Amino acid sequence: MTHACPRLRRAVVTATAVGVLVVPLAGGTASAGPAARPGAVTVTAPPGMSPTGVRKLSPGVVRQLDQAVLRVMRQAGVPGVTVGLWTPDQGEYVKSFGVADKSTGRKMSPELYMRIGSETKTFTVTALLHLVDRHKVRLDDPVGTYVAGVPNGNNITLRQLAGMRSGLFDYTADAGFRKALTSNPRQTFTPHQLLSYAFKHTARFPPGRKFDYSNTNLILLGLVVEKAGGRPLADYIATHVLRPAGLDETFFPAGAQFPRPHAHGYTNQTANGEVRDATGWNPSWAWAAGAMVSNLDDLRVWARTVATGVLPDGSRLISPASQKQRLTASPTSVPGAAYGLGIFDVRGWIGHNGSLPGYESLTVYLPSARTTLVVLLNSDIAEAGTEPSTLLGQAITKIVTPGHVFDLPARTAAR
Q1: Coil, strand or helix: which one is 259?
Q2: What is the 3-state secondary structure (H, E, C) of 147-209?
Q3: 124 near 8, Cβ under 8 Å?
């Protein structure tokens, strides 16, 4: 990994093959006791552990979490972090650490807006699935039906784009794109400009052959949503995804727009590798793959919604059939990790991470324990080749869900 190489880093969250997550209890045992009804199962969890495999958030566990977060911050040099962990019956943990602005010392706090990078993919693909439910598109339509000029576009399906199996070159890995972005990170890129960087390269493999994370896929899906939906992508997502889900603090910005109050973000993805404040950089280069902004409260709601397809009021954002398609996963190169349609599953944690210069995020949901984890931080500077969001997710889940430890190796997280 080169520090000057801009990228939308990707997390890995495993989606099950049939859309139903079945996870063994972490350290628990199941036995039919003498008083049990025929066929009933009595679950006994280890001390301090719920039957779902979540540790009770006692004062001692809270201290462990505090220490773990602070340890990773020191190790990776992260200025500020906000963590939210919610369980149905084991308690919750919402805390901010460090600073949101190094120049003023302003504290990090849970209400701040943050850039969420590749978590945008979950919103773009949800918009696509909404169009599937409206019979405006089909997942097995070729992308060439909607977007002209795509190499092999008559053979690459929308499903393959959403599942990262198109074989198309990732524009963020193009040397010309990297030079253009690092030389002027405030400039505006159009979707077709981004695609031109990708289409200079031959396909990496025939469509459908294997998993290969490429931001090019999501730029194309954004254009498909616009074509089939008849309106700009930001408007379609706002109307058909954000509004129904009640996500009033989540935005698809125009250019470098950034609602206040927000945290400042720090990166070394610069032309000379020096650390810079990237707060005002224009995320148009990430567009449908990573330009969105949100905050802790909205991401808490979104974690469960995107993993289950169910809105907070119990209604559905997309149909059960489309949700099942979303969670039908293919293996990645990482043991224990798979990828569905715009969503990861890492050892049972379903969701996505995000990274772009200055910011990283992790929003995941563990269905077996009905537990939500959101991590937001204002640095994307890797520590020994590992994303700081991965280090935090790993440290937190080792404590609270030792049977389901979130782990995303750097090779999968960044090209």
Answers
A1: coil
A2: CCCCCCCCCCEHHHHHCCCCCCCCHHHCHHHHHHHHHCCCCCCCHHHHHHHHHCCCCCCCCCC
A3: no
Whether the bond between 261 and the residue before it is cis, its omega within 30 degrees of 0, is yes
Contact predicate 206/167, CB 8 Å: yes
Q: Which residues contact 184 (CB under 8 A, 6 or more apart)?
A: none
Beta carbons within 8 Å of 349's beta carbon, 6+ residues apart: 13, 14, 364, 365, 366, 373, 393, 397, 404, 406
- Topology annotation, domain 29-413: Beta-lactamase (3.40.710)
Task: Reduce the DSSP state of residue 405 to 3 states and report it.
Answer: coil
Under a CB-based contact definition with an 8 Å cutoff, are residues 193 and 177 in contact?
A: no
Domain boundaries, the chain: 29-413
pLDDT at 51 over 80: no
pLDDT of residue 381: 97
- What are the residues facing 19 on neighbouring strands? none
Are 212 and 165 contacting, i.e. CB atoms less than 8 angstroms apart?
Answer: yes
Q: CA–CA separation, 32 vs 216, rounded Å?
A: 52
In tens, the pLDDT along 132-142 reads: 999 999 999 99
Give, in order, the Cα–Cα distances in Å from 12 to each of 94, 197, 309, 355, 413.
23, 25, 19, 13, 7
Residue 135, classified by CB atoms within 10 Å of its CB into exposed (0-12), middle (13-18) or buried (19+), is exposed
Q: What string of DSSP letters covers 266-306? A: EE--STT---EE-TT--GGGTHHHH--EE-HHHHHHHHHHH
Does residue 396 carry a pLDDT above 80? yes
| Residue 35 confidence (pLDDT) above 60 | no
What's the mean pLDDT in 110-114?
98
* Consecutive H or E run containing 223: helix 215-229
**In this structure, what are the phi and psi dihedrals at residue 142, rounded to the nearest 5 degrees?**
-75, 145
Q: Which are the contacts of 323, defined by CB distance < 8 A and separation ≥ 6? A: 19, 129, 308, 309, 316
Measured distance CA(193)–CA(286) in Å, rounded: 11
- Quick: pLDDT tens for 185-196: 999 999 999 999
Question: Residue 135 — φ and ψ, nearest 5°?
Answer: 60, 30
Report pLDDT digits (tens) over 115-126.
999 999 999 999
